[in-house]
Amino acid sequence: MNATDIDAAPEGPLPRTAVVEAVSRVVAAFATRADTTQDEIVSLAQRLSDVFVSLSPAPVAPPAGTAAQDLATLPAADSPAPAVPLDQAVTGDKVYCLCCGRGFTMLKRHLKAEHGLTEEEYRTLFGLPEDMPLVAPNYSERKAAYAKRVGLGKYQRDQADPSVSGAD
Ligand SMILES: [Zn+2]
């Protein structure tokens, strides 16, 4: 069986986002196997990112005048480079996916659907602290306020108040 077809190394250095993308894709495919443990997935992700990074010897220098300090905020070399600098990954309304750089109110579903990662795997992959939110702060406040307003435990899915819908 020809199981490995990762030998199509592109010419020239890979951009860091491509590295993360490639790692995510391989790991996601690997994670669909029934006999795969979480440890295996995480260590595979780490090994793959080492391999892909070593394929790209020269990081592309940012053009003069752009935010060069981004490079200084990159984490230690044993984590894949996030697509978004960590200090910009969370805003009031959005949390940005470090794998692909897209912003969401809640990352959890996106991580699972697009990258095959659980929250825990995602945190491990990027070495994120426990208190790093994966839900936009404004959104969780709103959700908490909403839950309080409708009365915790009283809300029933099949008796949803029709006046709630469309109040977005
Ligand atoms: Zn993503």
Distance between the termini: 52 Å
Full CATH superfamily name of the domain at 16-59 and 74-137 = ROS/MUCR transcriptional regulator protein
Bound molecules: zinc ion
CATH class of the domain at 16-59 and 74-137: Mainly Alpha
Shape: globular
Strand content: under 5%
Biggest sheet descriptor: 2 strands, antiparallel
Low-confidence stretches: none
Order of helices and strands: HHHEEHHH
- State mean pLDDT (0 to 100 scale): 76
Helix residue percentage: 40-55%
Q: Give me the count of strands.
A: 2
User: Would you identify the CATH architecture of the domain at 16-59 and 74-137?
Assistant: Orthogonal Bundle
CATH topology of the domain at 16-59 and 74-137: Arc Repressor Mutant, subunit A
Write down the Rg. 20 Å
Q: List the strand order in the largest sheet.
A: 1-2
Number of helical elements: 6
Assembly classification: single chain
Helix-strand makeup class = mainly alpha
